Amino acid sequence: MQVDIYPRTAVKSLVSEPIHTGPETATILDIRQEKVEVSLQTTICGMLNVGERASIQMPFELLYNAKGLQLFEEITYLEDYYPTGNELELLQSSASQLAHSLSDDSIIVELGSGNLRKVDLLLSALDRAGKKDIRYFALDLDHGELVRTLSNVPKYENISCYGLWGSYTDGFHWLQNMDQRVDPVTLLFLGSSIGNFSRSDCCNFMKDVSRTLRREKGDAFLVAFDHCNDPEKVWKAYHDPHGVHERFLMNALHNANAVMGYQLFDLEAWRADGEIDHKQSCHLLFYRALKDTSVGDRSFKQGERLNLGHNIKYPRDEVQRIFHGAGLQQAARWDNSTQDYRCPLRNGVSSAGLYTRGVPGADLKSDAFGELTLKVTSGT
Question: What is the pLDDT of residues 266-325, one digit of tens each?
């Protein structure tokens, strides 16, 4: 398979002039401002330099090397991993409506694209609707996985598919600095990945989205929030009997050793673990020391935790405050059959349910679980 890699300076022509590619060719645009490995090395070194008693937070990006992305793809096919099933149900039922809301010449950028299984429903609907000159950009951290997934996409009649090799920050920077960006842009952020951020990082991410979108062009943002209020259902979603989640989480320690170039972690000394924090409405991810061990100069006693991240389950009212605080507007909505997954869309004109620009929210904590919601908004 042919692979074309373009530097950031060559991207402008691809945005202003559509270039059609088939599944036999993967066009990958390198938009990295810094190599992922270098960034992770810096983060890990900073993590190890905190005080002996300070809590250590592993960088979540360690999960998503090539092996991690493949394991996560396996997770999305597990029966109890409900977020994927809910999103597929909604997109299958509303893809045509979503497609008709987008105009010809639209640019679609998916942040953290994965295996493209869900976005294919939207792209196929756009093709069936006869939309012209649609450009789809799949953004992900791993170049090899972009090549693999893009090589498997169907051949669309009027859609050109590209890869963006970089981070979320790289994606925002690329869009914000695009001189010839004249066509409407729709950002996709599916998989309830927003729940992996801390609450403060979530608010900052939404503000980055708001700064990237242009209201006068009809730009839009489609994002999934998980609000499941059933702790047993949440637990089963992240603790499967086949051990896929455990392999996924342990792969991050393998990746950390590879990034650092030496055995930073004794893999026999740790196991992946988790718990539900009802007060913070989230599922916590961490490693537990199976014996006394050390990571660099930091010592860990048997049973001590090493934090990795969390999956926040946002209540609906908290989601509204997050959007309001970022100055984003909601304009339309779709529900799935059980009304536990919603999809509002901004299509460039005022409509019922539109939220005006607000002031940043203060306390974003909640003690309640919700359901799963999908929202689309636009900048003001």
Answer: 999 999 999 999 999 999 999 999 999 999 888 899 999 999 999 999 888 888 888 888
Locus of tokens 């006394």? 292
Cα–Cα separations (whole angstroms), residue 207 to 67, 233, 318, 323, 379:
31, 31, 15, 9, 10
Q: Where are the alpha helices (DSSP H) in the chain?
A: 12-16, 36-48, 66-75, 82-101, 119-128, 143-150, 168-176, 199-212, 231-238, 244-260, 316-326
Whole-angstrom CA distances from 197 to 60, 165, 173, 225 are 9, 21, 19, 12
Please tell me the distance from the alpha carbon of residue 337 to that of residue 92, in angstroms, as a whole number.
11
**What whole-number distance in Å separates Cα of residue 352 and Cα of residue 348?**
13
Q: Which amino acid appears at position 347 of this protein?
A: N
Q: pLDDT of 106-160, one tens digit each?
A: 999 999 888 888 899 999 999 999 999 999 999 998 898 899 889 888 889 999 9
**Whole-model pTM above 0.85?**
no
Q: Are strands 282-289 and 270-277 parallel, antiparallel or unpaired?
A: antiparallel
Secondary structure of residue 247 in the 3-state scheme: helix
β-bridge partners, 225: 373
Distance CA(88)–CA(93), nearest Å, equals 9
Q: Are 170 and 32 in contact (CB under 8 A)?
A: yes
Residue 214 and residue 183: Cα distance in Å, rounded? 10
User: What is the Cα–Cα distance from 92 to 343, expressed in whole angstroms?
Assistant: 13
Tokens 């935790």 belong to which residue? 305
Q: Return left, alpha or beta for 185; rule: phi > 0 is left, psi -120 to 50 is alpha, else beta.
A: beta
CA distance 360 to 327: 8
The pair phi, psi for residue 70, each rounded to 5°, is -70, -40
Distance from C-alpha of 51 to C-alpha of 13, rounded to nearest angstrom:
49
Q: With CA atoms as reference, report the closest residue to 285 among 109, 119, 75, 116.
A: 75
Q: Is 261 left (phi over 0), alpha (psi -120 to 50) or beta?
A: left
